[in-house]
Write a sequence for this structure.
């Protein structure tokens, strides 16, 4: 595949917009496509407010199992390249749909988690939040007795307005927008590439498969993230571990 290397210094502000495909090579299943989470579970039963009200223990068990699976996975070289780039360029932002925390684990500091985090719980009654360390134990109930809800944007939830504002600010000034591993099916996240394009960013898609959003990008690389990112940013050196 012909990959045109980029010089990060040619850009003022770089945004990486990532989806589940970013973590696929870390061993974390995507949501759609072969082996996807939504081919094994019905989100209506495990990932929405109505299911949480109806059967909180089923919902909490699903998320406990997801945490166990994610805790066994490590950031891949794609995560590390993005984190290393942030060390070498003044303005790199990750806007991720992922809840697995792997960008942060790889060392990225400017990470906007559009859909929340698997590693945070919140009490729907008193609003208390609880950060979870992978591998550590954590309660299902708040001290007030209410079931603790994963602090994740479920189907039907609104995104946190502060998070949306942060994402929009990063898009307003971005002149390089690199989308990695998203099917572009879930709104409002799916609208980000259009906004970046409208703001004049040069936009790239890294995804082995095309989707209906693919037409929005200036260029697409139909290959896995860890094959494209090192060749897209050859000048990025640093602790890029597999
Ligand atoms: N490198 C890059 N892309 C990949 C790789 C890879 N190694 N492997 C798979 N992909 C691509 C797939 O082709 C697919 O287009 O990653 C994409 C994953 O799509 P989804 O599973 O739909 O994940 P995502 O787009 O992140 O879903 C968005 O949906 O269920 C909700 O809230 C959940 O954040 C999630 C949202």
């Amino acid at each position: 595949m012909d990959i045109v290397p980029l010089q990060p210094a040619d850009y003022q502000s770089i945004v990486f917009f990532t989806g589940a495909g970013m973590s696929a090579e870390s061993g974390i299943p995507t949501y759609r496509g072969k082996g996807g989470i939504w081919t094994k579970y019905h989100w209506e039963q495990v990932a929405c407010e109505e299911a949480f009200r109806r059967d909180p223990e089923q919902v909490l068990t699903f998320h406990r199992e997801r945490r166990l699976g994610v805790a066994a996975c490590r950031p891949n070289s794609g995560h590390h390249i993005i984190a290393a780039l942030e060390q070498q360029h003044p303005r790199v932002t990750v806007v991720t749909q992922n809840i697995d925390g792997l960008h942060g684990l790889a060392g990225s500091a400017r990470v906007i988690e559009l859909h929340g985090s698997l590693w945070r719980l919140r009490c729907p009654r008193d609003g208390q939040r609880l950060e979870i360390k992978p591998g550590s134990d954590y309660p299902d109930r708040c001290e007030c007795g209410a079931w603790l809800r994963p602090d994740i944007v479920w189907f039907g939830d609104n995104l946190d307005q502060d998070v949306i504002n942060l994402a929009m600010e990063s898009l307003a000034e971005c002149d390089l927008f690199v989308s990695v591993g998203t099917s572009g099916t879930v709104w409002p996240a799916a609208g980000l590439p259009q906004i970046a394009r409208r703001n004049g960013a040069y936009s790239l898609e890294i995804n082995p498969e095309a989707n209906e959003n693919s037409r929005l990008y200036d260029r697409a690389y139909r290959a896995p993230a860890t094959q494209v990112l090192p060749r897209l940013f050859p000048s990025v050196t640093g602790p890029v571990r597999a």
The mean pLDDT is 96.
